[in-house]
Structure formats: structure tokens, C-alpha cells
Amino acid sequence: MAYNNSPNLQNPTDGNPPINPPSEIPTQVVSNFTTDKTTGNTQYVMNDPNGQIIYTVGPDGNPVPNNPVLYTVAGDGNPVVPVIPYDNTIVTSVPPSPPRPKFHRKEVYIAIAALILFLGGIIMLAVAKPSYENCATKCMKQYLVTYTLRAIRNYGSCLHKCKHSYNAIKGTGIAFLVIGAVSLLPPPQTDDEVLDALLSEIEWLLSVVRPQKLLYLAIDGVAPRAKMNQQRSRRFLKAQEEHTWDTNCITPGTEFMTKLTERLKCWITKNLTENISWEKAIILSDASVPGEGEHKIMNFIKAQKMQAKDFIYSMDGDLILLSLAQDQKNIDILRQRQYFAPTQPKVLTVISIETLRQRLAKVPPCFSSNGAINDWVFLWCLSRNDYLPRLPSFEMEEISIDKLIAIWRRVCGKDYMTNNGTLNLTKFESFMTELAKEETRVRQCKEPVGAKMDDDIRPWEPGFKEHYYKEKFGKEWTLEFSREVVKAYVQGLCWLLEYNYKGVCSWRWFYPFHYAPLTSDFVNLVEIPEFNVDKPFKPFEQLMGVMPIASKKLLPQPLVNLMVDKGSKMANFYPEYENVKVDYNGVVLLPFIDEDDLTNEVTNVNDELNDTEKARNSEGNDIICFSIRHNLYDKLVQSEKYPVEIGTINTVIDISKATCVSLKMSNKVAELI
Predict the structure, then answer these.
(1) Backbone angles phi, psi at 105, to 5 degrees
(2) Cβ atoms < 10 Å from Cβ of 531
(3) Which helix H or strand E contains 108, and what residues bound it?
(4) Which pLDDT value is given to residue 330?
(5) 596 φ, ψ to 5°?
(6) CB neighbours (10 Å) of residue 114?
(7) Helix axis angle, 595-604 relative to 557-564, nearest 10°?
(8) Cα separation of 125 and 131, whole Å?
């Protein structure tokens, strides 16, 4: 026999809760207390023909009248209400209502105080985190200790319960998510593990941000050729790591990226059709749409001229510089702290671009104007970027960003080196001259024993310049060759500026050397020729341009043949790892792929591809999805003013409740939402 005073076992007559059971219950039969020896359940008996019933047992073990009933609970957990005969009358042990206690003034004061506390709690809840967020955070801490398939599924189930248990407070504005790789510990084994982790990450981020108007999901598409060289080096090194799941599959054109797009479409449609609270529109820019994810987002924001508060989630630090460069103030950038230990909790860092601008205005030399901030962004890009090799000056610890700012202040004064994405070559040359002087001073002060340089490169010795060009470029230093290298590097800086401020000015341009020139060679700079307007590579062309031979299984077989067949023009561009030199700074000395050979060879095998592979090699458009309840349904789908192509989603979910439309960037979505 078990005792229970749970609220669901209260008196069905008046709702008074039962008292706690005594520590011991007598097992012997007394005059007015019996025990059923068959079931072991306590029975309460009537000892007064007028209906007075003894219901419970006092601390001394004797029955006490006029107290709430002490319920018994059977082995199945259900309450037992004994029914026993007395003088040929069926009587149950359900107690009568106890006499109503007197309501004194003290109780009135207590009730008023409780009401005040209750109202205060409501106000505090409105200010504090919403219950849904707390619930989601508990799910995360409980299940996402490690990214395993079981943990991810448990987290998804827990989060689903939170949605039905709490009403999440709507956010405001627009959220942009750059979808990239999730660090899984232990390393994943299958595509499904990674896709589940990505969707869980998105669910968690949306539980924090909760956009109301628009959610923009951006995936890296085909990158400009200037970025492809760096991507090729990274993927070459990644392929040497022993993992069951090849991370190089996170590249446009692979089968995995197609799976990712389909999973995202199903996830979007499921939420739009089943979750009535999803009143926002969702734009998906998948890997078939050319461009890096951060630049897709910034181009969209700039084209739509949005004024709402925007949240952008991205792990790429360049997004901060992009937001500053394009004078986007209504943006908060979310970044997740990276931990090497899998047990660390998730922590988001919020970077307000408006606050960052205000802080820069207070830091000497007061970057208050747009021109000064643009130069500050340029100095950061000059010190490190993903499109050009690093200048030797920045390998020295003494040449910091503070040192660059000090030189910039001396050289420029009230003028600027950049103007809305255009480089002032005169000011830039003066800046590089001063930087070269600082580099020489640092070299002279360096102790040869402690210098972190190649054994063959000794900057403190005479003939350093000749040594550098011979070692890094494989050529003797000449004025003509150094000017050729400098011209290409300056052209790269101009390309980078225009890319950050105006968009891609050339998809095919790239810096044709593995190393940067010396700072002292930036003299007699001439005007840089304009870039040629061209088109991006196709997905399979980029795959051939960035994939190492160790990851050939990710490519269609006709492309693999181009890699391995000795008679192919492409075979020499894919050496084995042991035949490639990697210097002490991690520079991979891979041969640069010839663009004409690349496009011609891939085009020649196009007929050997099946229909699925041809679809993976095609260029796509952004799609916008919304429910039939959204005002976009009438404005886009049923309006001749905005002619669009209705898209379909390959899913079992009823598509009649949601619509996906192929969207051209020229459509002013912000005016419609």
C-alpha cells in the first residue's frame, strides 16, 4: 500500500488537498479501523449510524475524526476509494466537506500580497527571457553536450515539446543565417549526421533571434577565382586528415550540397504548413546561386534598402568589415564562441555595428567619418584577407594594426587612401614607403637567432631582396619582374575594395603568384586597368578548380577521368600530396589551373553526365517561401505586377498550404513584406 497527497488525488467534492500520511499505519484491526488482508489496502469504516465517518489516523496511531481523507494508492498508481457495507447500506470512503475556516483579516493581507507578487512576476517575465527560450536553453544544455546523432534527435524532440508548451515571443526585423559547417565532436560518419546537426543549429538560433518578417538562409555558392586559389590550398590540406566523412564535400556541385538544399526545403515547408506561428517569409539562397554567403546577404540588404533591425549569424570575421564598409548601421552580427571541448555550453556574441562605429569614433585618431572608417577597413584587409597572400611585413609581430594606424595618420592627415571602393594610388604609395621604413627598422633590431624566418631568408643580412625573390618566386630579382608582381598585387587590392563595396567586378581575375612582393617595391605605381565583366564558373568547373585528387570520389566519374588520365590536359594540375611542397607558413605550392583548359575540358564531358549530375552543374536562383496566409501570396502569386515562376518542393507535405517562388534579386521584396 502506498500513500499519496498529489493534487490529482484531491477530494472530488471541494478540492481540499489531503494531509501528509502518518509515518506508520497500524496493521491490526481496531474498533473503527480495518485492513483488507487480501489487497493490503486500508479501508475507512463508518462507526456512527448518523453518517459520522472517521477518515484518517493521528500521530499516535488512533483514528482522528473530521480530517481530510488519507487516500491509498494501489500498485498501478490509481487511487483506491474503498466501498464497504454497513447495516445493509453501501458507503464509500469519500469524505464530506470540512467546515469552512474563518477568513480573518490576516488572510486578506496575505492574499493582497500574493496578488502583488503575482503581478510583479508577470512584469519580470516580460522583461526577462521568455519561457520558450529558457526551455530551449535547457534542452540544449541537457542534450547537446556532444554532437552525436542520438543527442541531436533527443534535442529535436525536447525543442518540439517547448514549442507546444510555451508561446514564444515574436522577434522583430529580419534574420540572416550563413549556413556553414558545424564542428562535430566526435567527427561525423554520415551525411545525415551533419544535416541533422545543421538543422538543430538553425532551430536553436531561431529560438534566440525569432525573426518576424523575414528569414534569409545563405549558403556559399561558386566563389570568385581569387578565392578559389585559397579554397584549393585548404581542401588539399584537409584531404590529408583521416576522417570517415570528407569535409571537402561542403563545396557547390557535390551530392551533399544537393541533399542539404532538399532538407532545407522540406524543413521550410514543414514549418510553414504545420506551425501557424510561422508568419514570416523565408528566402533560401542555396549553393547553386553564385557568390559567397556573406556577400549574398550584404547585396540583398543593400538592394532592398531595409530599415528594420537585422540579425546576421556568421562565423566569418569579414562580415564585420563588410557591414562597416557599406555603412549598414541597423545590423547586429551574431557569432558563436568556438570551444575545443565538446562539453562547453553554446555562447553567442552579439556585435552591434552601430555601437562599433561609435567606439571607433572615440578611439584616436577618431574614426568618426565614413572616409576614416573606410580606410580603417582597408588597413585590416591589407593585413590579412582570403584573396591575396600576406605581405612579409605582417609576418613581423612588431607590425601591428596600431602601427599601421600610426603610419596612416602621419601620411594621410586629413585625406584618405580610399574613396567608396577606389584606391588612391598616390596616398597608398606614400603609406607603403613609410611601412617599408618601419620594416627596415624592425629588421635591423631583430636578433638573428630569434627570428622566425626560413633559413634561406635572412632579412638582417645584405642581399635580402634578391634572396626573397629567388626563394619565393624561383626567379632572379629584376626591376621589371618586381614591378610585374607589384602591379598584380595592387590590382588585387583594387579588386578587393570593389568587391567589398560594390560587388564582384570580375569573377575570373586572380593573383597569379603564391607570395606577395616586398613592401619596399611598391614604388612608381601606375593606374590599374579596369576589370573585365565576366561570368562565374559553373559548379563543376569550381569543383575541378578546388578539389584535390584525394577527394575525387566527390566528383562525377567523367570529371574524375580528367583528373587521373595521363592524356588529359588537366592531369598535371592534381599532384599527389608527397609531390607538393608546403612551406613553413602553410603555403601550398600547387600549380595554378589554366582557365581555358578547365572550361574546355569540363564542357567536352558534359554529354557523359546523367540528368541528375547536369542539374547539379546548373546555376539557380534564390527562392522565397511563405504560407498562403502571408500577404506575399496575393502580391506575388496572383499579381501580374511581379511575374514570377512558381516552384515546387519535392516533399510529402501538403504543398497547397505553402508556396515557393523563384525570386530574382531585382524584385523589391522589402516593399512587399
Answers:
(1) -60, -35
(2) 16
(3) helix 105-127
(4) 79
(5) -65, -45
(6) 10
(7) 130
(8) 8
* CB neighbours of residue 363 within 10 Å: 11
Per the CB < 8 A criterion, the answer to whether 43 and 29 are in contact is no
For residue 482, what pLDDT is reported? 93
Longest dimension (CA), the chain: 123
- Calpha distance 139→573 (Å, rounded): 48
**CB of 431 closer than 8 Å to CB of 407:** yes
Question: Mean pLDDT, 10 residues at a time, over the chain (673 residues)?
Answer: 36 40 37 42 44 46 45 47 42 46 61 67 50 59 49 55 46 67 65 88 83 87 93 86 82 94 89 78 91 89 71 82 81 73 67 83 71 88 91 81 86 85 92 89 65 47 81 90 94 94 93 94 86 92 93 94 91 84 81 93 95 94 80 65 44 45 56 60
Residue type, 103: F
Which triple of cell numbers denotes residue 95? 469524505
| Grid cell at residue 80 | 483506491
DSSP 455-472: TT--TTSTTHHHHHHHHH
Of 249, 284, 247, the residue nearest 265 (C-alpha): 284
d(CA 332, CA 354): 8
Cell of 361: 569614433
Q: What backbone torsions phi and psi does residue 522 show, to the nearest 5 degrees?
A: -85, 75
Taking the model in full, what pTM does it have?
A: 0.71
Taking CB atoms within 8 Å and a gap of at least 24, the contacts of 609-613 are 609/556, 609/558, 613/556
Helix (H, G, I), strand (E, B) or coil at 84: strand
So what's the pLDDT on residue 426? 92
Instruction: Dump strand ranges (E) for 127-280.
Output: 174-179, 214-219
Q: Give residue 638's pLDDT.
A: 59
Three cell numbers at 240?
590529408
Cell numbers 489496502: residue: 41
Quick one: three-class SS letters along 573-633?
HCCCHHHCCECCCCCECCCCCCHHHHHHHHHHCHHHCCHHHHHHCCCCCEEEEEECCCCHH
